[in-house]
């Protein structure tokens, strides 16, 4: 049972990612524009074979999932059909979360 103010600890497994690069280079990912209206672009500098970009609404429902390619280094998503609000953008590889960022849609 968790203590009232305890912070849970999680072990993260990372495959095919240079952990040193991710830790020492916090600018490996860039999301713009944010806030966004019609489209949002994720740029990345890591090798992300087998990785996915996922967008979740605040209820935790996955509303978008897109495969990422190391060759492209950038992906643009059309978001004009999403209601205005706050979302979580998550990059995963082999079920490990590599990056997450708040996305605001106007």
Compact description:
With 106 residues, the chain is mostly beta strands. It has one helix spanning 19-24, and strands at 29-32, 39-44, 51-56, 62-67, 74-78, 85-93, 96-105. Residues 6-17 and 20-25 have low confidence and may be disordered.
Describe this structure in words.
The chain contains one helix and seven strands. It has a four-stranded antiparallel β-sheet, with no helix packed on it. Strands 1-2-5 form a three-stranded antiparallel β-sheet, with no helix packed on it. 6% of the residues lie in helices and 43% in strands. About 17% of the residues have low confidence. The chain has 106 residues and is mainly beta.
Largest sheet composition = 4 strands, antiparallel
Helix content: under 10%
Total of DSSP H or I helical runs spanning 4+ residues: 1
Count of beta strands: 7
Specify Rg, calculated over alpha carbons.
15 Å
Could you say which structural class the secondary elements and strand pairing correspond to? mainly beta
Broad shape: globular
**End-to-end distance:** 40 Å
Low-confidence stretches: 6-17, 20-25
- What's the assembly state of these chains? single chain
Mean pLDDT: 80
Q: What's the helix-strand series?
A: HEEEEEEE
Residue share in β-strands: 35-45%
Strand order of the largest sheet: 4-3-6-7
